């Protein structure tokens, strides 16, 4: 099944391009890309001044069971996010995104940067930046999605909302129906917890628990993140990104402790809408390569991969209770993650440690920035040895809204 899902990710752009060409009326023109998501949000100007305020909230409930065992019904407030933006002066602006997670138990600065616009193709950004690996890490706001849960590969292979302190450049050029863009950043990066954690496997999200990455690098070597994107107003946006650097502390006070060990991620993403009223498509695939020491057991994978594909179709577009732009969407998501790509040294058999998931949903949007959503998901997960998969079913309801 993973093989079929893998080929589906890469067939989508070509199918969508063909469908767009045959469509009499294309989607409305726009130059917005995933890289613009940080500013493409609703803000309320304070007193008509240069400062804007906004945010979004998510509240959910779920009932899940694995192999017939369940912990019952749970209610969650996974995040409350605040945005503050300011136009400091001409061509200089500031924006911060502060997230309160799990009812306020955790407070994280996900984005806080000063942007200096020198030219459309040359802009300087410094502060806490969102590393542009894949599309979801940049464009993750809850009200934009029809699903309660975030994509599995974009949260367990790519650390969800992965951001670091650093500097970089970005730019964008629109020419005719085409838009071209790039981003390049040097930031602090990962540490050795990605192979030394409570998960007992290679687990890149473990590095998010280290607050010191906002104060200093774990080894003095910057993490490099590069992304290029191209968009045609009728075909959609295609992005290719790479993020890599040294994750281990290889020396201390001039004393060599280890060789430099790298972690590298490559991601490809695509999104479009087929026709004016056709389905919206979002897809992303990621590969992670980690230099794991030979002394570690084979449960720590040196390669990981995963991807997801979302299809969203509006089935009702009429006024409801005075909401003139109300609509109802049907959605389906297919996703998989393989946390240990490879074979056992002793037998040559494939290492498992993977999962496949399917989720269907329906969402009601009284306005574009508010969604009430209901999802049903089913997940098959295998352990390292490839034993029969555990099966998890979950029912989820939730609301997410900008404010």
Give an overview in words:
This protein is mainly β. The protein has one domain. Helices cover 6% and strands 52% of the residues. The chain has a 16-stranded antiparallel barrel. Strand 5 and strand 6 form a beta hairpin. The longest helix has 20 residues. The protein is globular. The two termini are 41 Å apart. The N terminus is likely disordered.
Tell me the number of helical segments per DSSP (H or I, 4 or more residues long). Answer: 2
User: Main sheet, how many strands, which sense, barrel?
Assistant: 16 strands, antiparallel, barrel
Query: What structural class should be given to the helix and strand makeup?
Result: mainly beta
Q: Write down the domain tally.
A: 1
Radius of gyration: 22 Å
- What is the string of SSEs from the N terminus onward? HEEEEEEHEEEEEEEEEEEEE
The tally of strands reads 19
- Inertia-based shape: globular
Poorly predicted regions are 1-29
């Amino acid at each position: 099944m993973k093989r079929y899902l893998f080929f589906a990710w890469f067939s989508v752009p070509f199918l969508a391009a063909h469908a767009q060409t045959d469509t009499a009326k294309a989607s409305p023109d726009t130059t917005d890309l995933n890289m613009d998501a940080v500013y493409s949000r609703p803000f309320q100007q304070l007193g008509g001044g240069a400062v804007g305020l906004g945010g979004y909230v998510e509240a959910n409930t779920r009932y899940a069971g694995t192999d017939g065992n369940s912990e019952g019904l749970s209610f969650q407030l996974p995040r409350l996010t605040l945005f503050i933006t300011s136009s400091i002066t001409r061509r200089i602006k500031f924006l911060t995104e502060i997230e309160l997670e799990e009812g306020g138990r955790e407070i994280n600065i996900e984005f806080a940067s000063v942007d200096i616009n020198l030219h459309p193709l040359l802009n300087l950004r410094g502060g806490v930046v969102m590393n542009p690996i894949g599309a979801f890490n940049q464009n993750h706001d809850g009200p934009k999605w029809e699903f309660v849960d975030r994509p599995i590969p974009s949260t367990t292979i790519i650390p969800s909302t992965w951001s670091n302190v650093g500097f970089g450049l970005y730019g964008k050029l629109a020419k005719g129906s085409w838009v071209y863009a790039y981003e390049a950043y040097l930031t602090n990066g990962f540490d050795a917890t990605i192979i030394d954690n409570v998960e007992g496997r290679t687990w890149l999200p473990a590095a998010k628990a280290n607050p010191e990455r906002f104060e200093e690098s774990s080894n003095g070597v910057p993490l490099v993140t590069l992304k290029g994107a191209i968009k045609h107003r009728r075909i959609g946006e295609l992005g290719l990104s790479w993020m890599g650097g040294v994750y281990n502390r290889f020396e201390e006070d001039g004393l060599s402790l280890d060789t430099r060990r790298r972690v590298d991620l490559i991601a490809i993403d695509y999104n479009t809408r087929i026709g004016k009223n056709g389905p919206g498509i979002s897809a992303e695939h990621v590969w992670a390569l980690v230099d794991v020491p030979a002394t570690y057991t084979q449960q720590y994978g040196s390669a990981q991969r995963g991807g997801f594909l979302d299809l969203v179709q509006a089935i009702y577009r009429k006024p409801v209770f005075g909401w003139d732009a109300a609509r109802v969407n049907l959605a389906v998501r297919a996703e998989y993650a393989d946390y240990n790509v490879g074979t056992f040294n002793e037998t040559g058999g494939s290492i498992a440690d993977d999962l496949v998931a399917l989720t269907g949903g329906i969402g009601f949007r009284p306005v574009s920035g508010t969604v009430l959503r209901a999802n049903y998901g089913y997940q098959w997960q295998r352990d390292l040895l490839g034993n029969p998969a555990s099966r998890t079913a979950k029912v989820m309801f939730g609301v997410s809204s900008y404010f």
